Amino acid sequence: MTDTFPKLLIRNADAFGDKTAIREKYLGIWQSWSWRQKRDEIFALANGLAALGFKRGDKIAIIGSNRPRLYWGICAAQCLGGIPIPVYQDSVAEELQFVLDHAEASFVLAENQEQVDKVLEIKSHCAALKTVIFDDTKGLRDYELEDLHDFEGVQKKGREFEASNPTFLQTEIDKGSGDDIGIFLYTSGTTGKPKGVVLSNSNVLVTAVNSVGLDNLSRDEETLSYLPMAWVGDHIFSYGQAYVTGFCINCPESDETVATDLREIGPTYYFAPPRVFENILTSVIIRMEDAGSFKKKLFHYFMGVAKTAGGAILNGESVSVMDRLRYRLGDFLIFGPLKNTMGFSRIRLAYTAGEAIGPEIFDFFRSLGINIKQLYGQTEAGVFITTQPDGEVYADTVGTPSPGVEVKITDDGEVIYRSPGVFQYYYKNEEATRETKNEEGWVMTGDAGYFDDKGHLKIIDRAKDVGKLNDGSMFAPKYIENKLKFFPQIQEAVALGQGQDFVSVMINIDLDAVGNWAERNNIGYASYQELAGHPEVYKMMLENVEKVNKDLSSDQFLSGSQIKRFLILHKELDADDGELTRTRKVRRRIVAEKYNVLIAALYANETNCHVKTEVTFEDGRKGSIESDLEIMDVKRFEVIDQKTAKAS
């Protein structure tokens, strides 16, 4: 019975043989491994781990970018009944130490010298940690440590071990079952220390099988595996679904080459969080601003056609013959070349999740004929809670319950669910487990939402973040922030208002978009800080914020939470400074504490404020940035009815 991933590996090697299972771009050339070759590589590694003393129940941390050998490490550990623990590759030493020590990892599989150095730095603080294996040998040949091994050397030990123990590995694989713990995935730690989410083989496998059936995925799909291996989405899409279907995953050469590699592969199946789609749209707009006047006019005309007809055609709705002809011409002149440039020409299905995507961004991609859909999920669910069925795709909902998932709304408005993918428990955290999952298996998401009249789930915000202004108006910060981030000039925003008389926001500009604009307008600047404080940039942000206010004024729930004041931060919010999680979510409590002087100034009706902020440089050194920030008032709109608003 194929109830574990090593058993699926054997099945795929027998069934698909020479079909390509995984690719990696190395030194500009794509390297490929078939399912049969992949099995042999994984088995050699598994036997090598056994030769080094790795045994059932042991844990191995996997640290690095998306690399075939790191993916093989997951399955190799599972072959022996061990537990893999992917860790975010950009984790600083302190974050890495917490996960390795908390999980009691005895082995580490690291990508390169950078990761090995971090591990060696914290090794003495991790009692269980003994053995470190590395993939890329560059810079590591002179490291002479007894418990430090290169990947190929471990595989060589594995082949020698197999020669002496020919039935060992198959016996260990046969012992495995769906009920065994398959992986630990640590949460991003938005509100505190990350929690170790314990998932069984069946949690991942059944979820993958159900989602594959929902979207009719086949072994012919191609995906680009570029999102962190420590994130549950990558584990389901690049590991779970790939093993279930036999489709091919592709590992880019580096973070810097993802866009190029995406175009070369032309995936049929794609996943990206909203921020990626936001960045793609920003780059499109930047390129169009640099284009000639005729191209600009042509682009805007046909994007108007796409907005009118594109989504309707994709949804199978009735569209006039003339609009279809105009759209076809637009596809030939604009949409087709644009999708090719983005690497989206072959996409049959694309998903976005992680946080809400701006409706305008969502509609932009669907209008081009790209079948992008939203799903709602959590690490604790093995990703899937709700998904959007074909023909029922709406920008303001996250779909209906996924196969095998039950979803309810509590009397307090919180979304709860249960499913075959529900996690077993939080490792070493019984209290958090009890708070999150009840005895009947229902998981509390912490998100506020409701089902609309079409039976689709709408997520308002994190339940704890949805609040009220002093006049009783609803305040949903994430909703407001997503509207602001639709504008290509805005990279990040933090909305404030809980228990206040009005809403204010702190904004991060997008350096690429605003920098491009500055160059075209002959505005010189020497740093992010200087550009962010420029009067013309403030004027641009004011126009964007006022557009958001006008939009909010027609919202029956949020018209009272229009923005009254804003400022532009003098530095980008950064995960290394603790302001964002490794999945780029704002840590609101830390931001509120760190910028309390700015928040006080926003609500004291001051027009400027001096701020000094500690920052962490790339080499780990600490420093500080000082600046005098301008605070600007914003025009708000009086609500006449749900469709008409006039300036007050």
DSSP strand tally: 30
> What is the CATH top level name of the largest domain?
Alpha Beta
Strand order of the largest sheet: 4-3-5-6-7
Supply the CATH architecture of the largest domain.
3-Layer(aba) Sandwich
Q: What's the end-to-end separation, in Å?
A: 68 Å
Query: How much helical structure, as a percent, in the residues?
Result: 25-40%
**Helical element count?**
21
What would the average pLDDT be, to the nearest integer?
A: 92
How would you portray this structure in words?
The chain is an alpha/beta fold. It folds into three domains: 264 residues, Rossmann fold; 97 residues, no CATH class; 181 residues, 2-Layer Sandwich (GMP Synthetase, Chain A, domain 3), CATH 3.30.300. Helices cover 39% and strands 23% of the residues. It is built from 21 helices and 30 strands. The strands form eight sheets. It has a five-stranded parallel β-sheet, sandwiched between helices. A hairpin with a 5-residue loop joins strand 22 and strand 23. Helix 1 runs antiparallel to helix 2, helix 11 packs parallel to helix 17 and helix 12 crosses helix 14. The longest helix has 22 residues. It is globular, with a radius of gyration of 26 Å. The C terminus is likely disordered.
